[in-house]
Design a protein that fits this description.
The complex is a heterodimer of chains A (about 100) and B (about 160).
Chain A lengths: L2 H23 L3 H26 L2 H33 L13
Helix pairs in contact in A: 1-2, 2-3
Chain B lengths: L1 H19 L3 H21 L3 H26 L10 H4 L1 H22 L11 H8 L1 H31 L1
Classes of the chains: A mainly alpha (about 100), B mainly alpha (about 160).
């Protein structure tokens, strides 16, 4: 493994774990969306590292573009749900979501 | 290599700023900056199309969506946000760096040798070999649009009912 690939894998893993930590630690719904974005940055870096290592940048770019689209749709739907939750509960606290009714 | 390390260091720095900032608008700005740095990294590795997508969609669209949501929700819950995760973020980052080091060392042992795959352009892969992905992406965009419409319509219908 070359040094750039190792650096990419290292940073990708670091960002992934930071995202998971933030995801588990925060209570604000908007911060949860941000944590998912941090996690996604880490995954993008690891995809890039794997593709660069194998010398298949065409395939890697294709997968990264697909992942970015998935990430964007996820963020858009999550943010819409955040707006609805705020209007329903007058709060962004995730603990209040236990009082949802069907 | 030195430039790459600086860029990756900035990426981690912006992720940490995003985690510790009290103001959500600063956090959104940090996310946009992290996306810009990531797109520079992608450019430097020759992934030009992916870099353009990252720059326009992640640094642009998602940031605009996020700032709009912050302004819509008026960020009413800053006082209830626990400060403990932000305080422990730096020590945890050291722990995560150690785990990542072990991960990279383990990966170096199990990864197959660096390959030189046949030079295939992004266009050939995307429109030729990965056509199913394109169909999946179109479906995802439709799911996203219809999902948003359903969420917003359900809310407006609920209001009308009230």
């Amino acid at each position: 493994m070359t040094e750039p690939v190792a650096a990419l894998f290292f940073t990708g893993m670091l960002l992934f774990m930071t995202g998971v930590y933030l995801l588990l630690g925060v209570r604000n719904l908007l911060r949860i969306v941000l944590a998912v974005e941090v996690l996604a940055k880490g995954i993008t870096l690891m995809l890039l590292a794997a593709g660069f290592h194998r010398g298949a940048m065409g395939l890697t770019q294709s997968l990264i573009v697909t992942f970015i689209i998935v990430e964007t749709i996820l963020a858009a739907v999550m943010l819409a749900l955040v707006v609805i939750c705020q209007r329903t509960n007058s709060s962004l606290d995730i603990r209040l979501l236990s009082r949802l009714k069907g | 290599m030195a430039l790459l390390i600086v860029l990756l260091g900035l990426l981690v720095l912006f992720a940490v700023l995003l985690g510790v900032s009290r103001d959500l608008l600063y956090a959104a700005a940090a996310l946009a900056a992290a996306s810009v740095i990531l797109s520079i990294v992608l450019f430097s590795f020759g992934a030009n199309v992916a870099a353009a997508f990252e720059l326009s969609v992640c640094a642009g669209l998602i940031t605009v969506l996020f700032v709009s949501t912050v302004s819509l929700t008026k960020d009413s819950d800053q006082k209830t946000e626990a400060r403990l995760p932000a305080l422990f973020l730096l020590p945890m980052l050291v722990l995560f760096a150690g785990i990542s080091g072990f991960f990279v060392r383990w990966l170096a042992g199990v990864l197959p040798a660096a390959g030189q795959a046949r030079a295939v352009t992004f266009q050939e892969v995307f429109w030729g070999q990965r056509m199913t992905d394109v169909l999946g992406q179109i479906s995802l965009v439709l799911v996203g649009v219809f999902g948003l419409l359903a969420i917003l319509r359900a809310k407006s219908a609920g209001r009308h009912h009230d």
